[in-house]
Amino acid sequence: MLIALNKPYGVISRFTPDGSLNRTLGDFNLPRKTYPLGRLDADTEGLLLLSDEPELNERILHPKHRHRRIYWAQVERVPTEDALLLLEGGLTIQDRKTKPCHAWILNPQPQLAPRFPPVRYRKSVPTCWIGLELFEGKNRQVRRMTAAMQHPTLRLIRVQIGGFLLGDLPSGTWRALETAERRQVLEAGETTLHRRVIRKVHNIRSA
Question: How confident is the model at residue 144 (pLDDT cuts 50, 70, 90)?
Fold first, then answer.
């Protein structure tokens, strides 16, 4: 069984409380004996996979498989092309350099339902949604990367794993994936040329 959950803000990626005020996965009536494949921070929304198949954990999470993860990040101010190139080339964070990735400004900017609680807005500081395609998943990596280029992340949503898109699955709901969708999840990293094509496609589809 492979399940896609659109995890809301303020939910930890575990079934038992961690001492915080955040909700747990136990609130979503998920099937017994399933567990999350990887994690999303409590303040990150979007696609979280769960399964009852232990072997999928290594298949999806081990860095050697270069498994694609795509995020939409709402950041303060509009990044320049130079700032995006810094992200793509890798940044040194906590004494290690992040692996090369792809970063772009979403065009058109997505119109999403407001988050509760709402993100922090400053009237004098514009915001911008960017896309990030990563092949690793270190702790709070996207937030640390955007902070390092002086564009703090205000809201973060994971929208894709492998070739599977979160799509219009409502926040706080889940569904079991069909066979074709499972194959999409397990797609490995593609060639650099193919990834550049995907980057252009996401610029078009990011509505």
Answer: very high
Q: Which amino acid makes up residue 52?
A: D
Element (H, E) at 143: helix 141-148
Considering the entire predicted model, what is its pTM? 0.89
Which tokens sit at 50?
């769960």
**Active-site residue (options: 41, 82, 95, 168):** 41
**Cβ partners under 8 Å of residue 165, min gap 6:** 159
52 is catalytic: no
Q: What whole-number distance in Å separates Cα of residue 138 and Cα of residue 103? A: 17
Fold of the domain spanning 2-205: Pseudouridine synthase (3.30.2350)
What are the residue boundaries of the structural domains of the chain, listed by start?
2-205
What whole-number distance in Å separates Cα of residue 8 and Cα of residue 183? 25
Check if the beta carbon of residue 62 is closer than 8 Å to that of residue 96. Answer: no
Length of the chain: 207
> 44 in the Ramachandran plot: left (φ > 0), alpha (ψ -120 to 50) or beta?
beta
State pLDDT tens for residues 45-66: 999 999 999 899 888 887 777 7
Residue 109 structure tokens: 């900017």
Quick one: tokens of 94?
A: 């906590």
